[in-house]
Design a protein that fits this description.
It is a single chain. This protein is an alpha/beta fold. It folds into two domains: 2-182 and 299-386, Aminopeptidase (3-Layer(aba) Sandwich), CATH 3.40.630; 184-294, Alpha-Beta Plaits (2-Layer Sandwich), CATH 3.30.70.360. The protein has helices at 2-11, 13-25, 34-47, 105-121, 145-150, 208-226, 264-284, 304-314, 335-341, 370-386, and strands at residues 50-55, 59-65, 68-78, 127-135, 159-170, 173-176, 179-182, 184-193, 197-198, 233-241, 248-249, 252-261, 288-294, 300-302, 322-325, 344-352. It has an eight-stranded mixed beta sheet with strand order 1-2-4-3-5-16-6-15. α2 runs antiparallel to α4 (105-121). The longest helix is centred in the last third of the chain and has 21 residues, at 264-284. The radius of gyration is 24 Å and the shape is elongated. The protein starts with a helix and ends with a helix. The model has no long low-confidence stretch (mean pLDDT 97).
Length: 390
């Protein structure tokens, strides 16, 4: 059956490319993906596949039942784009100013749609049920996974599998990892309230820029001196704003940044220590502050059995040249919420294009479309193999 799946997917690879390029040309940002959702709905409607629209927002969930009894296994693909101007010179360049698929979600969607079509054609030979989760709004917290789960997309699901096309990894490579693989991603916003004044009279002020600069430096000591060296953590200030004339000392300054971690205890520590350092810095400078700390996605933690099943399946696919354990990634992913509810795994499919390679979220981001075929074969073989497990 596995070989039949691969042959069918090889035969429809061009359709996968057509879908991906259509989506790439017509991107929609998070929480506004109405036309993309309609495209997905129409695809399944034309096949005669049962689906539910508006799941937790713009989400779409399709269900395919094999004729034989078995487990219920889910596959997930996200479909939102980013507010980035597409700077590639390709025929399928985004037609929407300031919006592009700069993270591969168009490829994820094309992969799952065509894999779903193939599973539907093979339903007379399949056991169990296959839940195809097309998720909106992965890029921005609170994301689309939580509301889709709350709306019931995982009801009755025994396990879930997902992948991310990864432009920085050679095509033909599949990367897996048991346990934490992507970080919890939190956001903070600090407003320092000093006292402004004339640039020639700093002694009469409480300079918010100087205080903010001290704070940026002090925050770096949290990871280096408060977190165990065997744990991974990041505190990064991404924005420091205090707009004034050249001869005015800033009355206030705003710092915005991110906190990343894997261990829940470390996550709690980082949040506590961040405010403690802010308090101490502002106390030493006799000023006040406001802190907004928002917890984003949890860490993506892969389950052992499903991850090892995925590894074993990938090693048997001729298109795949290498199956290897990946390092942990500090990027965030709301696939984490699915894994908190049911067993499963999230892996990386190498998609490095020919020529110059650009990272995810770059204006010239692109990927090797052949990776979609590898992703489809790996996901398809994994869910079929899962039906054989006890």
């Amino acid at each position: 059956m596995k070989n039949q799946l691969f042959e069918k997917l090889d035969a429809v690879f061009e359709e996968m490319q057509v879908i991906r390029r259509h989506l790439h040309m017509h991107p929609e940002i998070s929480f506004h993906e109405t036309n993309t959702a309609k495209y997905i709905q129409e695809f399944y409607a034309n096949l005669g596949v049962e689906y539910t629209a508006n799941v937790g927002g713009n989400g779409v969930v399709a269900r395919i039942k094999g004729v034989f009894p078995g487990k219920t296994v889910a596959l997930r693909a996200d479909f939102d784009a980013l507010p980035i101007q597409d700077e590639k010179d390709v025929p399928y360049k985004s037609t929407v100013p300031g919006v592009m698929h700069a993270c591969g979600h168009d490829g994820h969607t094309a992969t799952l749609l065509v894999l779903g079509k193939t599973l539907f054609e093979m339903r007379e030979q399949l056991s169990g049920e296959y839940v195809l989760i097309h998720q909106h709004a992965e890029e921005y917290a609170p994301g689309g996974a939580k509301p889709m789960i709350e709306a019931g997309c995982l009801d009755g699901v025994d396990a879930i599998f997902g992948t991310h096309l990864w432009s920085l990894t050679p095509s033909g490579t599949v990367e897996y990892r048991v346990g934490p693989v992507m970080a919890a991603a939190d956001r903070f916003e600090i407003t320092i309230q000093g006292r402004g004044g004339h640039g020639a009279s700093p002694h009469q002020t409480k300079d918010a820029i100087v205080i903010g600069a001290q704070l940026v430096t002090n925050l770096q000591q949290i990871v280096s001196r408060r977190v165990s060296p065997v744990e991974s953590a990041v505190i990064s200030v991404g924005s420091f704003v205090a707009n004034n004339a050249f001869n005015v000392i800033a009355d206030s300054a705003k710092l915005i940044g991110t906190v990343r971690s894997f261990n829940p205890d470390v996550r709690d520590l980082l949040e506590r220590e961040l405010e403690r350092v802010i308090q101490g810095t502002c106390l030493a400078n006799d000023c006040s502050y406001e802190l907004l700390y928002e917890r984003g996605y949890s860490a993506v933690v892969n389950h052992e059995a499903e991850t090892l099943l995925l590894k074993g399946v990938a090693e048997q696919i001729p298109d795949i040249k290498e199956v290897r354990e990946t390092e942990q990634h500090m990027g965030g992913e709301d696939f984490a919420y699915y894994l908190e509810k049911v067993p499963g795994t999230f892996f990386f499919t190498g998609a490095q294009p020919q020529g110059e390679v650009y990272p995810h979220h770059h204006p010239k981001f692109d990927f090797d479309e052949n990776a979609m075929l590898i992703a489809a074969k790996t996901l398809g073989a994994a869910v079929i193999k899962y039906q054989e497990t006890e």
